[in-house]
Amino acid sequence: MDPYAALRYKEFNIFLIVRFAMVFAWSMQFIVIEWQVYSLTKDPLSLGIIGLMEVIPAVSMALFAGHIVDQKEKRNLLITCIGGFSVISLGLFLLSWPGLEESWESKTILYSIYALVFLGGFVRSFLGPTIFSLIALIVPKKIYPNAATWSSSTWQLASVLGPALAGFSISWIGVHWSMCVIFGFSLFALIFLFQIPRKPIMNPKIGEPVFQSLKDGLKFVFGNKAIFGALTLDMIAVLFGGAVALLPVYAQDILHVGSEGFGILRAAPAVGASITMLGSTRFPLHKNAGKKLLMAVFSFGVCIIVFGLSELFWLSVIALFLSGAVDGVSMIIRQTILQLKTPDNMRGRVASVNSMFVGSSNELGAFESGLAAKLLGTVSAVVFGGCMTLLTAGTTAIVSPSFRRLDLQKDIEEHEKED
């Protein structure tokens, strides 16, 4: 297959620019918030609460959001999502105004940040399903795997640069003006999005009752062994392998590398994942996908354990880099499974379930890591998470031989015949 097949479509290139700008802004914002909150509290549990504040609305609204996405036009819905994120970014910019700490109590600032993060969770519940559904309306089915790889690579590249710039910008221009940069990127994404025309609604059941729609979506996901297995495996791995949530603690109190070292640590996993994803455009991962996914999750757990035990900055960076590289394999395979095995009329609902399983487990993982660090200590919490990830991969390999034998080559050939 042509490794640049998806890039030959102008609208897809515009879509990648929009996705890059949004992921860059969102990932940078999360890092700046983490730094500001830990600087205010010096409590690792407060970092976990950031994730909890976002995951509560994201999970509670996920299924309903999927129903709405399947019922509405995707381009305009994405415009609404990005507009909502811009408003939240503007609020965080104002909250970080110099001198505000002198006139407001730290708790007031902290709770205001949590409130805006909470609102961001509602936005995110719609954002993921909308983006997932829009891709399928921009490129033909036969290049879904290639488009999914480039989309995921763009996501990872933005995840590299966002955290890295966040760490350096905190050092160079401070939290306040870092928030201004984030707001600017959200407006940039909004402007570019208008270059993509509106798309047709593929769902033939417009006006379908909400509960029937949600029931059909859940029935499909839980009935499809490949989708359900991939989501479950990744969810547990991310939930217990959420060491990145504790990076401010490592940067400030264990490795003593400051905000710039924090940026490097935070970017290392995404650098590894980006290299994996760019490589996968030439060396696809769809053959023996089940085995590759299980091996990737197991290797991820090993990397997290090494990072947790390390007291050397360079070793910590390498461990995080390798964790990102194998996580990139997991992400590509999962996204390819979802794109190939999801009907057009159910993409919003399936993507919403995916966000509940995997996307929201990032925040739940952050809360789990923060709580475990509070109870067990930071190092013990990270090592525990890595061990649980190893256990999950090993158990899945033993109890689910059908998932272990999963191969996506046949699905790709069928889509090529359809086109």
Account of the protein in words:
It holds the Pfam family MFS_1. Its main location: membrane. Keywords: Cell membrane, Membrane, Transmembrane, Transmembrane helix, Transport. The chain crosses the membrane at residues 12-33, 45-65, 77-97, 109-138, 150-170, 176-196, 227-251, 263-281, 293-322, 375-399. This protein folds into two domains: 1-207, Up-down Bundle (Growth Hormone, Chain: A), CATH 1.20.1250.20; 209-418, Growth Hormone, Chain: A (Up-down Bundle), CATH 1.20.1250.20. It is globular. The two termini are 14 Å apart. It has 419 residues and is mostly helical. It contains 17 helices and no strands.
Main features:
419 residues, mainly alpha, Growth Hormone, Chain: A, 0% strand
What's the structural blueprint in terms of helices and strands?
Blueprint (H helix, E strand, L loop, with lengths): L9 H32 L2 H28 L2 H22 L4 H4 L2 H33 L5 H29 L1 H20 L16 H14 L1 H16 L6 H8 L3 H23 L8 H21 L3 H29 L5 H30 L1 H22 L1 H4 L4 H10 L1
Helix pairs in contact: 1-2, 1-5, 1-6, 1-7, 2-5, 2-8, 2-14, 3-5, 3-7, 5-14, 6-7, 6-11, 6-13, 9-12, 9-13, 9-14, 9-15, 10-11, 11-13, 12-13, 12-15, 14-15
Pfam family, one: MFS_1
Membrane topology: Multi-pass membrane protein
Main location: membrane
